[in-house]
Write a structure and sequence with these properties.
Keywords: Metal-binding, Repeat. This protein has about 180 residues and is mostly helical. It has helices at about 5-15, 25-40, 45-65, 75-90, 90-110, 120-130, 135-145, 155-165, and strands spanning about 25, 75, 115-120, 150-155. The strands form 2 sheets. Strands 1-2 form a two-stranded antiparallel ribbon. The longest helix is centred in the middle third of the chain and has 19 residues, at about 90-110.
Length: about 180
Amino acid sequence: MSSLRQRKYRQWFLAADVDGDGTLTRRDATLMSERFISARGAAPDSPTAQRLNDLMDGLWIQVIAPMDRDGDGTVDLDETVAGFEAALADRANSAKQIKAIADHYFELADANGDGTIDFAEFRDIFGVGGRASEEDCAKVFHRLDRDGNGSISHEEYHQAVEEFFFGDDPDAPGNDLFGKLAA
């Protein structure tokens, strides 16, 4: 696996480790959901909050928890990188898995359900998830909005996710999808 992909998986891990304890647990998924709910200004018992909680719980169950190779209930950075490496080794099969992850995040971001992600929606989810400033969110958003129409389509988003998880092009717009990559 390339060093660029290792850096991207590390960045994903850092964004997912909400409590900053160096491991991913179901608590991180809960905390991320709470951040998304707060960013949306939704009441904790609202349908929006329930949907976000369900989506984050699904992400934990389907994506993160299976990376726990030692069965201790936590996923560390090494397990995350190894989990992505194993899951993405078979490009044809892993494309289906990545599509499921991309659909999850797209649904999280598309607050109004119109099938696109506008800047406010992107900032609310990816600014919170990637711990990015509004300025950094704007830079990434404009790179991902490849047709320049002011929103990220489902296709543009899937292309960015593909670049993030599979790509080795250091200049690909999708590289910063989960926050600015550290050198």
